[in-house]
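A common beginner's mistake is to predict each chain separately and then try to dock the pieces by hand. The better habit, illustrated here, is to supply every component at once so that their relative placement is modeled jointly.
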Amino acid sequence: MTAYSRSSDAHERSSTNGTPSALRCEQKELGVTPVFYLPQWFQTLFMYSHRPELSARVMDMFLVRRIDALFRVGLAIIQLSEGRFPQEIQCTAPSDEQTTHELRCPPADCAELLISQELSAAVDHLRELDKHQLPNEAIMNTALYMDALPFDVEERLEADSASNDGYSSDPDDKHSACLVS
Amino acid sequence: MKGYKLERLFPSQQCYLGKCFEIFDELLELVLPRAAQRLVR
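With all components supplied together, the output reads:
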């Protein structure tokens, strides 16, 4: 078993080193999942950002590395966003005074509203690359020189498709038929 | 060429994207702590 073969193992080790992925923790606390920002990134191949140079470089990488490129660029953006989450949307423990006040006079749906605003701000932050000016070079260099991904994304997709769905819309396609059999 | 092979393996684009989300989430768990560790070194 490799050092990074289990997610819980990796997470545990990073925590013990005092270097947990702060942004990941914040995302989890806020309820931000890839569902909120990934469609925009993947469905447009990062072209939504109106940064032609970045789009061209992502496309270039996509032609060489295929779907792996999208995951790498996405991970690079998340990695570079580390520590850049605006202070106002970070999850901070409320002070005793604040908690006492809220317990005394809890406004209706206040907590729910606050969470949804934080969630919304967090998602906006991740979506709007232009807003926090991640340089193209930094994104691409991080994506390119990132360690090898722990598994082959395309192979995983094929395996999941074969094991779960067994679906192929083209029965004549020999490759697909082989994968789903 | 009738399309990208992965697209043909999934019943819909939503299903395909859904699987991508799962994989990306898993990669976040695996890759981010590793990158943070490397920065510390």
